[in-house]
Amino acid sequence: MTSAFGVLIVEDDVVISRVYAKLIDAMPSFTVLGTARSAASGSSAAAALDPHLLLLDYGLPGGVSGIDLLRQVRMSARQAEVIAITAHSSTDLVRESMRLGVLDYLVKPFSEERLRQALNKFVTIATCSRTSTLPQQDVDALRESSAPAKQWIPRELSEKRLSLVRKVFREENGVQSAEDIADLIDSSRVTARRYLEFLVSLRELEVTVDSEKPGRPRKLYSRRPPQNSQPGRRQG
Predict the structure, then answer these.
(1) Residue percentage of the chain with pLDDT more than 70
(2) 27 or 3: which carries more pLDDT confidence?
(3) What does the radius of gyration of the chain's CA atoms come to, in whole angstroms?
(4) How far apart are CA 225 and CA 180, in angstroms?
(5) Whole-number Å distance between alpha carbons of 191 and 196
(6) Domain match, 124 and 205 both
């Protein structure tokens, strides 16, 4: 069984750091090794913990920025990948970050789903890098990792069925129950509800409870306008 990839979170906001940690721990390929609130403590933690991945906020206190820490990491023997997080996206900063080899660059405020995509991109690269030589399909996978990351979905969900559920809500007005969706995607009601609740977690759908009819209350799902979930604040 593949061991989990260790992540170090460098973020000065304690609340936001906890949001990141909760999201990362929910993904089976990762474990949070620790957190740091400044570039100095981040550098010490990186040396002590030797993480596979740094989730690095650029807006850090103490006069040393996240990108300064990134430069230090690249000059050291450590080979950790880095996902940069910042409210700033000037051309020079983005270019410098790319030159220093960041895996991804997230501009605040960003959605939780966008962070999952960046983490999923890391898994693709890290998995391919564990062999000394790569077949063509793995070379292609590494090249594709520089493109926008694919959406992350839980292992128990099918991308094809998820697309069908989304299509229903794009084309149909009104509400749908788990029973309605189960019939449309040829699944059990329990399975259909997993897809619906996943889309609720992404804030693509909203759920209400119908308690007017006799019997057990039903959950009803409907499409909602896109809204960003914001695990990062626009600070630095």
Answers:
(1) 80
(2) 27
(3) 20
(4) 21
(5) 9
(6) no
